[in-house]
Amino acid sequence: MKRNSICVIAFSLCIMFCLSKVYAQDKISWLQDFTSEIPAGSSTYQYNYFTLEKDCKIRIEEKKTNKKGVESTISSEFYLSDISPSSLSFKSSGNLLAISMETVESQKFISLYEGDELEGYTNELSVYTDEVDKARAIIESFLSHIETCKDNEKTWTSNEEAFNWLNQNIGESTKSGSVYKQKFTKGSKSFLVSFESETTDSKGNQQTSQSVFDLSDIDPANIKLEVSGITLKINVPVRDKQNYVQVKSGDGEIHYTKDLDIYIDDVEDARNKISALKYLISNTEVQRTNFTEYDQAMLFVKENLKEVPVGSNTLLQSLSFENSPSGLVSYKVNKTDSKGISNEELAEFYLCDIANVNLKISSGNAYITIETVDNLKYIRQSVNGELISYSNNLEIYTSEIDEARDLIHALTFAQKTCDIGLLKFDDMEFTKEWLSSNLEEILSGSETIRQQLAVASTEGTKIELKLIKSSEGITPVDETFEIYPEDLSMEDIGIEISGNKLSVPISTGKLKYIKSYLDGEINAYNKSVEVLFSDVKKAKNFIAAIGFIHQNSESEDHSFADEKTAFDYLENSIGKVEISGTIYDQKIERDDENKCKLTYSCSQTDSKGTTTQISCEFHISDIDADHSSIEISGKELKVDLITREKEKLIKPFKEGEAGSFTYNFDIYTDDILTARKIIAAFDVLADQCK
Questions:
Q1: Cα separations in angstroms, 293 against 51, 297, 318, 441, 444
Q2: 539: part of which helix (H) or strand (E)?
Q3: Binning pLDDT at 50, 70 and 90, where does residue 281 land?
């Protein structure tokens, strides 16, 4: 074994180590059969085994004599109960057998000496013999006495006993050259600990700190004795390497770490402290306030928010909540920076939109993160009264980890008792009334948008949405949209959030079936229009109401009772329509002798007054209603009627002159439902004329 550089240690420390070896020691009777010389090539080994102070603490002396007769002695001291029985084994090493052993959990509980001088600490050692029977006998002897010694280990019968022992025995340590004055005391709760340390180094420099931690955070399996030269310390780590130890330095600065160190002066002291810590941690139960009602939990949060320094800012936090598990929660922060400038920040949310409430640690703060379901941006955030954005998370700050956990406990309980609070839409009149009275006036930038929605009681239950947009000094703009519920694509209707805008699109999917007007004039058809909201729950209720209207629309049945009703509808619905300045004056007529033969005629007058006469003749039975369609382009809406198999059976005329036969012709209209029913009427007539 190589000698460590012990010469750097003060002479007084050497004297201390040497004096420490002057104690009673007796040879171990159960190992005396294994003390004879063991030849090893040109050298010999001889082992002596002693008990130290107690039967379970032993010293193994290994004397090695080389071929010149020079002797060297190395020794190891340890408690038998610290040896792991499963580690005892032997294997050949040249003409010797090496018997190896390790400590439980690889703790460095074995002291190593060269002569009488402490060399360091280790978690393993080996002794040699030259016969297999002896190797097995040594192992058996160790195993039997290890079990006996485990019964004599220091034990605790209660947390109070273990805590008091630690309180009395964690104190001053001087072995490393620095002086550590340490105190292990109870915190404000039974599971909290305060560990104070005053360190004075060899130059007289002092540092003080106070570490506060939750016993249940400590990982008992990984509490280890750490050795650096002759310095001994017990490392007490947090589970999963989380920074859950709050450290306050002498100047008041706070930071968080993932462990703490307790300095000690001897191995026996370490083993007992580790044992006491493990017992204490394993038997610690964390108790928090037992909540039974939503209001009780939320009131706890409200009353326990505090003013907290965060970096160069000071946060004055407050909470308000509606007296219902489905109500709105408002978290307000008055943030003041180092220059005294303050801003008021407000976050508003519903607890049913919250998925996770977690503890987080920054360099100097413990805080709570509140995260929404599926990361949806359902938290409304304002600064100084102005809506800034919607977010999927917010942070609540505390001055201590345990305070944060109390708040998390309360918020988690409240979240589990939340009620989504959506209205039940199962009555058409109630739904119409709700839709007409619950759209909001929204401020978007410098523009105010007043929204009005009405659902007609006539056939089709047509939805009319009016948006009146106004800005200071600018003439208001009136946009109106007409939508039939049966055209809605409900899978495309949901809450959408972008920046500070929360909206629900009324969508007809890929079809531009939404008719629009701009200041009373017909505008291009659209496939969606946004309804704006400032409240997530109101937006959810809006979606539910629109869904009910969609499912219960009166416009789903477009059938006609008979051929006469169908033709009467065509006669009354195919008429004069103006689209983009062009007037289409249309009519449909039957042949007097053959009711299945029809003539469609249209007088088209453009914006310059030029009129064009077109018409076409066809047999109704040739029309394929299933493949006929509604065509939309810009402001233009028309029904494109197609023959079966696209056979060219339609005879067109322009200004009275016949053209080439074709397979389709168009009928113009200005209403989606009318277009749909025109196709349905042709379907009935075609079926009658087959």
A1: 63, 7, 20, 35, 39
A2: helix 536-551
A3: very high
- 480 - beta bridge partners? 466, 517
Looking up tokens 């990982």 gives 219
Specify burial of residue 686 (Cβ count, 10 A radius: 0-12, 13-18, 19+).
Answer: buried
Indicate the SS3 state at residue 311.
Answer: coil
Crossing angle of helices 563-573/672-688, nearest 10°?
A: 140
Helix axis angle, 159-169 to 267-282, nearest 10°: 150
Q: Which two tokens stand for residue 273?
A: 């402290």
| Mean per-residue pLDDT of the chain | 91
How far is the CA of 346 from the CAs of 23, 222, 331, in angstroms? 71, 43, 6
Return the DSSP state at 446: T
The helix/strand/coil state of 401 is helix
Q: What residue has token string 């996770």?
A: 356
- pLDDT score of 300: 98
Residue 469: Cβ-neighbour burial (10 angstroms; 0-12, 13-18, 19+): middle
Contact 533, 539 (CB under 8 A): yes
Q: Are the C-beta atoms of residues 550 and 542 closer than 8 Å to each other? A: no
Report how far residue 680's alpha carbon sits from residue 406's, in angstroms, rounded to the nearest whole number: 66
Supply the angle between the helices 536-551 and 428-437 in degrees, to the nearest 10.
140
For 488-541, the pLDDT digits (tens) are 999 999 999 999 999 999 999 999 999 999 999 999 999 999 999 999 999 999
Asked if 5 contacts 32 with a C-beta cutoff of 8 angstroms, the reply is: no
Give CA–CA dist 193/164, Å, rounded.
12
What distance in Å separates the CA atoms of residue 470 and residue 476, rounded to the nearest whole number?
A: 4
Residue 563 · residue 684 · CB < 8 Å: yes
One-letter identity of residue 35: T
Does residue 406 sit in helix, strand or coil? helix
Q: Do β-strands 576-579 and 528-533 pair in parallel, antiparallel, or remain unpaired?
A: unpaired
Dist. CA 376–CA 235, nearest whole Å: 42
> Cβ(649)–Cβ(619) under 8 Å?
yes
The pTM (predicted TM-score) of the whole model is 0.82
Ramachandran region of residue 646, left (φ > 0), alpha (ψ -120 to 50) or beta?
left
Q: Which among 465, 432, 470 has a CA at the least distance from the CA of 449?
A: 470
Q: What is the pLDDT of residue 222?
A: 94
* Residue 314 DSSP label: E
SS3 682: helix
User: Does the pLDDT value for residue 13 go beyond 50?
Assistant: no
pLDDT greater than 90 at residue 252: no
What is d(CA 171, CA 168) in angstroms, rounded to the nearest whole number? Answer: 7
Structure tokens at 25: 């020691």
Bridge partners (DSSP) listed for residue 603: 585, 613
Residue-wise pLDDT for 391-417, tens only, equals 999 999 999 999 999 999 999 999 999
531 forms beta bridges with 504
Predicted confidence (pLDDT) per residue in 339-370, tens digit? 999 999 999 999 999 999 999 998 789 999 99
Task: Name the residue type at position 599.
Answer: T
CB-based contacts of 594, cutoff 8 Å, min separation 6: none
- The maximal CA–CA distance of the chain, rounded, in angstroms, is 140
Residue 601 tokens, joined: 């005629």
CA atoms 644, 645, 648, 653: torsion sign: positive
User: Across the strands, what pairs with 498?
Assistant: 501
Structure tokens at 218: 């400590």
